[in-house]
């Protein structure tokens, strides 16, 4: 079972967070590194998912309730780690008093987020060359 813990980006877990995101977004999906690292990480709340003390997933939430950078290494997908990561971030948002959380979902992932209680809104849009749609969940 994965262990999902809140971590500081600027702390000792920064290397693991960056490594996971580099693998998933930059290498697998072709997102340019300059887009992946948008300058918002230092002010975001992050979580790190670990299996047998090995970091395998990560995600962040910004102060306005925007969830993003959900990434799970390919070797550990389909095991509930992504869902647990989103749930942990949602719980952080609720504890901080947010009434809703929102995200930009890659179109192929909308079913995943719908199963977690998110609903799409607005038009599709391109981000880093990948089609997305806004989704939200009221807490």
Question: What does this entry look like structurally?
Answer:
InterPro entries: Acyl_CoA_acyltransferase, Bact_Acetyltransf, GNAT_dom. Residues 2-139 form the N-acetyltransferase domain. One of its GO terms (molecular function) is acyltransferase activity, transferring groups other than amino-acyl groups. There is one protein chain. This protein has helices at residues 14-28, 33-36, 81-95, 110-115; strands at residues 3-7, 45-51, 54-61, 67-72, 100-106, 119-127, 130-138. The model has no long low-confidence stretch (mean pLDDT 96). Strand 2 (45-51) and strand 3 (54-61) form a beta hairpin. It has a domain at 3-99: Aminopeptidase (3-Layer(aba) Sandwich). The longest helix is centred in the N-terminal third of the chain and has 15 residues, at 14-28. It is an alpha+beta fold.
What keyword list fits this structure?
single chain; 139 residues; alpha+beta; Aminopeptidase; 4-stranded antiparallel beta sheet; 29% helix; 37% strand; globular; acyltransferase; Acyl_CoA_acyltransferase; Bact_Acetyltransf
């Amino acid at each position: 079972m994965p262990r999902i813990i809140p971590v500081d980006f600027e702390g000792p877990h920064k290397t693991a967070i960056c490594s996971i995101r580099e693998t998933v977004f930059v290498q697998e999906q072709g997102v340019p590194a300059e887009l992946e690292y948008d300058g918002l990480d230092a002010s975001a709340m992050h979580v790190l998912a670990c299996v047998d003390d090995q970091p395998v997933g990560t995600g962040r939430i910004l102060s306005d309730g925007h969830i993003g950078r959900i990434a799970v290494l390919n070797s550990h997908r389909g095991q509930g780690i992504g869902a647990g990561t989103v749930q942990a971030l949602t719980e952080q948002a609720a504890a901080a008093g947010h009434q809703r959380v929102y995200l930009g979902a890659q179109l192929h992932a909308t079913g995943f987020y719908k199963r977690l209680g998110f609903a799409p809104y607005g038009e599709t849009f391109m981000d880093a060359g990948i089609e997305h749609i806004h989704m939200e969940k009221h807490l």
